[in-house]
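The aim of this short unit is practical: by the end, you should be able to scan a pair of folded records and say something sensible about each. We start with the first protein, listed as its amino acid sequence and then its structure tokens.
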Amino acid sequence: MKVKATVMDEQAMERALTRISYEIIERNKGTHDLAIVGIQRRGTTLAKRVAEKIEKVEGKPVPLGIVDITLYRDDLSMLSEHPVINGTDISFSVEGKIVVLVDDVLYTGRTARAAMDALMEFGRPKAIQLAVLVDRGHRELPIAADFRGKNIPTSKSELVNVMVDEFDGENKVTISEGVNADV
């Protein structure tokens, strides 16, 4: 996989996550009834960072959860016969909450739809909002991010690679050429 460009370095990612955190606070007039849920895998890391930034600004923690969308994917039958389940951990009630789903890249919208389906298994939130580090376009479903770090127009043949310390040993976003199987 040949990297064509680095579109966000560590500092750019940090600034984007800080801005997203402030926008979440502003849009929701604080943190009352707010919860953050990261979409497995890299969305969980980004969600944790956003929740930490919100806590630093507001002075109190925000409920933080993790959702695994594997069993809610519309292409599950095309995946491996034994898909890897990373686990969902939502240890608070979503009833009446404003839940901000956090993911690394918004592409077709199918991951966000699957995350909403999975979240609804836990109850009926007051609202669901979507925060993404990168919005790359090419939507197949009528889904838009409420909060985005960066719009990066791409071709369908390009890959957007979000790297985070916890999984990749570095923080950056790159674009590479390749057949994209991500949704």
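Turning to the second protein, read its sequence before its tokens, just as you did above.
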Amino acid sequence: MQIARDGTPKLKGLAQWMLDNLDQIAFHSIRTVAQIADSNPNNVIRIASQLGYSGYDAMRADVQKVVSARSNAQYSSRAQALRTRDENTVLEEIARSRLANMESIFHEESLSVLLDCIDPLLKARKVYSVGVRSCFSVAHYFSYVGGMAFDNFEPAPSQPGAIQDQMTGAGSKEIVMAITYQH
């Protein structure tokens, strides 16, 4: 990207950051990208314009295609590689990965975030949990376990159309837990 070489220092820095963080551009708004990159939205728009795009959304659409193609290729090659590997090695890697995930939950920063959630959840009139596709089971489990301990947890909607029906009654005294994952 020529801007990364020839632009003003702020534009150079942002352009280099954008090259290194395509996944952030693919799934975030202008303001969020600017905030994460420690820049401002005008610079993000300026770079999109200098690259020949009509706006940020047009640039983001192209970046999403690149990120998606890269992810699909990585997933495909990883899935193919699993076929040639010893099952004990794969199971050991799964066990290590699960352990690392559990350790990350108990990391000081994660614990701080979780502890900050306790009072709002307990004080909410109702707590809704929403997750679709691969996140449905997590949302369902969250609402199920929460409902065993607290009477303000609502069951997770079991049908995608029921999400809107259930959320219609949500107001400022309710909490909606949207379960998702980073693309």
